[in-house]
Design brief:
Largest sheet: 5 strands, mixed
Order of helices and strands: HHHHHHEEHHEHHEHHEHHH
Strand content: 5-15%
Radius of gyration: 19 Å
Number of strands: 5
Shape: globular
Number of helices: 15
Length: 295
């Protein structure tokens, strides 16, 4: 069976066990991971699906993920939705309740709702990381990936000044080679001219495959977004017929808040075996309860 075929199998399929075993053995032997003693099957399968069960590429992705976490503690060390509740309550971010025609998760970020005087770029990035950790646990998302819509209406110099080359590199790493999710499309709408210098700072770090999946729609996005997304899943604010953006933002905020304990467990022990109920509450494992710094 090839990688895509293997990806369609359930996590407990016999055909997957040799790949999981091989990746675990390679990970335990890696000097960069010497401090990690256990790798759960569910954790390893995320990386295998992200690289179509190529063990060598999956190991490289796993090493990049661990390195990124280690080098970005200001983002990955705190995965507490309540620490950024004020930002979430501005209707800044949503995951649409329905997947697109290809089965991908669809994420929306409304940059204009982010006040850079109140929230740092690191805290904003933390919101994205929390969502990514949650949806990467979904088998269907592991298979079909995600697509993101960035609404840049309201983008200001205050936002631009928050994005330095170091942060640009961290953003591009997550998009390309440091997180176990397949990015199937990035769509920018309402992008102003003075967003281009920031995008020019991020673009060189992106692989060609990701560059080809970036689409700029401008202010006339209502006409072009429908070329990529069926109107029944999009909010009316984006030319669709689905639930309104305020509703879907609030629903996802509630989902994140319900996942607080789970996310704290991931922040503390990302490779461990984590068992959750359907509402994402933790039922095994030890959770970290420290609150994040608001700075």
């Amino acid at each position: 069976m090839n990688g895509p075929q293997l990806s369609e199998l359930p996590d407990d399929a016999e055909q997957l066990k040799p790949y999981v075993s091989s990746l675990r053995q390679r990970a335990l032997q890696a000097s960069e991971l010497s401090a990690v003693r256990t790798f759960s099957d569910g954790f390893l399968i995320k990386f295998l699906r992200a690289r179509d069960f190529d063990v060598e590429l999956s190991l490289k992705l796993l090493l990049n993920y661990q390195r990124w976490r280690r080098e970005s503690p200001e983002i990955s060390g705190c995965l507490s939705p309540s620490s950024v509740l004020g930002l979430l309550n501005t209707s800044y971010h949503a995951v649409l309740p329905q997947r697109d025609h290809a089965g991908s998760r669809v994420l929306i970020y409304r940059i204009g709702q982010w006040n850079p005087k109140d929230w740092s770029a690191f805290q904003v990035f933390r919101v994205s990381l929390m969502t990514s950790e949650i949806i990467s646990m979904e088998t269907e998302t592991q298979r079909r990936g995600l697509k993101a819509i960035f609404d840049l209406q309201g983008w200001s110099l205050g936002h631009a000044w928050q994005i330095n080359p170091s942060l640009a590199r961290k953003i591009s790493s997550v998009l390309s080679d440091s997180f176990p999710l397949k990015v199937r499309g990035i769509h920018l709408v309402n992008e102003p001219l003075f967003f281009r210098p920031v995008f020019a700072m991020i673009r060189p770090f992106l692989p060609d495959k990701i560059k080809q999946r970036i689409h700029m729609h401008g202010a006339d996005f209502h006409d072009t977004l429908s070329d990529f997304f069926s109107t029944d899943i999009l909010p009316p604010e984006y030319g669709g017929e689905g639930p309104g953006i305020e509703e879907v933002c609030q629903d996802w905020t509630n989902q994140l808040l319900q996942s607080e304990q789970l996310l704290q467990q991931i922040a503390a022990h990302p490779t461990a075996d984590i068992t959750v109920t359907p509402d994402n509450s933790l039922i095994s494992g030890e959770a970290e309860t420290e609150r994040c710094s608001e700075g």
